[in-house]
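S.,

As promised, the thymidine-5'-diphosphate run. Input:
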Amino acid sequence: MWKRGTLRQMFITFEGPEGAGKSTALAAVAQRLREMNFEVVTTREPGAGDFGKKIREILLHGDDLDAKAELLLFLADRSNHVAKLIRPALESGAIVLCDRYADSTQVYQAYARGLDEDFVRQGNRFATGGLLPDLTLLFDIEPAAGLARIQSKDRMDSLPIEFHQKVRAGFLLEATSQPERWRILDASASSDEVLESAWALIQATLAAKGAKLG
Ligand code: TYD
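Predicted complex:
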């Protein structure tokens, strides 16, 4: 059983192409951590809070959007999310598990949509005030396999397969260029296997951040 030890706060993000199973794994990880008496906050992007829900509706269920307008809406959502929810939760000592974060913007809006990479990096820094996750798990899956798992497709899911192939390549590039923060999981495995891989990686980060087994 893990105990808090000198662990003060921890920020973990779950990233990956569509249908990779990250949301299911996130819920199961949160439950395990809570059973160990950690204070856990789960959240997601886009769409936390009232403001986030309205932006999510426009982004995922509205009309086709100009790529720059889309980028700015994801950043607006993130800025408010970090200020109102993520930072306060971390400052109170919680473990925050977030389903998608700044890396999704880097991959979807810069790498796949083709917006300027440096501008998007700066936009992310501006929106987050430089807040980076302690650990980012990449749930890697071949796009056709991931999309086949999705039951009702939103505006982004419905983009052509070539777009989703770029998304996957973009995630792999980001993950391999910052190996200290990222870990890659094979999300084509069964949901139990994916959960156990994610759990093992999270336990390693708990230990690195000062939690103790005992
Ligand atoms: P969501 O229903 O949350 O899907 P998923 O289960 O795949 O996370 O939809 C979020 C969609 O928005 C998803 O297609 C990824 C996309 N997205 C971006 O394009 N940029 C971003 O910055 C974020 C956070 C998400």
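The CA atoms of residues 72 and 123 lie 9 Å apart. The chain has a mean pLDDT of 97.

- D.
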